[in-house]
Amino acid sequence: MTSGSRKVAVVGVALSDCGRVDDATPYALHAQAARRALADAGLGREVVDGFASAGLGTLAPVEVAEYLGLRPTWVDSTSVGGATWEVMAAHAADAIAAGHAKAVLLVYGSTARADIKAGRRTGNLSFGSRGPLQFEVPYGHTLIAKYAMAARRHMVEHGTTIEQLAQVAVQTRANAALNPEAMFRDPITVDDVLSGPMIADPFTKLHCCIRSDGGAAVLLVAEELVRDCRTAPVWVLGSGEHVSHSAMSEWPDFTTGPAAVSGRLAFERAGVRPGEIDFAEIYDAFTYMTLVTLEDLGFCAKGEGGAFVEKGRLLVRGGELPVNTDGGGLSAQHPGMRGLFLLVEAVRQLRGEGADRQVWGPGGPGELPRLGVASATGGWFCSSGTLVLGRD
């Protein structure tokens, strides 16, 4: 449970237009997602007294809040890469529980794909070369190379195969096929993944996330506001966050990510076990992130992730633990810092709004899932935020 006296629920979630969006600014996508999330909850923007945003503008939360016409009395601009939103949601839940806010809106929007197509930016992502990065940047050690190196280490230590990693992409695409909003829905095979162009050994193209445009918004409120909402509440049961390293030389074990800590904390605070979870939404910029996070969260033992994923367990249809039910960053959408999309999909699943991709509870078709987990990773396994969510 949250640390304060009030329970906290997610009552509004939404996506902006996603995929290929050539005629909108990032600010417009923020606004579109925010309006839709408030409409989803059945609340007006006047109820919002807390706001969290990162990744846009010189003063991220200030500029975006102004654009949305908000004047919050609680703000957060924590930026830890893809895990930003799970960490922000944890901070928002604590603030609401403590009485510092009653309704906190989290919003993100990006035109990463459109900007490249229009020549407004290049495809290169540089974090500069100051501080600890100065010891890696001169050698061309890119973000994707860091993930690839970690994946190779797991293969060496635990016998994980490239075919097992490819299964993550294949099963995620199968889930995306059930989602009409997913950017890529055509089935793929292990051979398709292995025969693609090499990006960073051992990752070929389909081991890597897609690039899209899009935005998302999530509204968290205090329990006394739930009765005013049009949606069923999804409760924040427990959360955890962890920062691991910046320089790769300071990462003690390439086969264990920060979710090993954030996940343990989230499960302990929620009072549940991994075996009780009905589905998981996991940050998947690369196939290895899914595999190692499944281990870190305790869904299988360390080193057994390859065997776990190769048996079709991640599938919405027939899988023991459906993962990335919307198609994830590998197939549905990935406009950067995708952690907020995990929360949107988790809430939709718990409310029974998954349509053809709806996950069922232990009782089978017709029984809604009771517990879900959203776990995001930031940087190059530098940070993690994990939330356990549940319904009444």
From TrEMBL:
Lineage: superkingdom: Bacteria
Stretches assigned to the Thiolase C-terminal domain: 240-391
Pfam families registered for this protein in UniProt: Thiolase_C_1 (PF22691)
InterPro entries in alphabetical order: Thiolase, Thiolase-like, Thiolase_C_2
Protein name as catalogued: Acetyl-CoA acetyltransferase
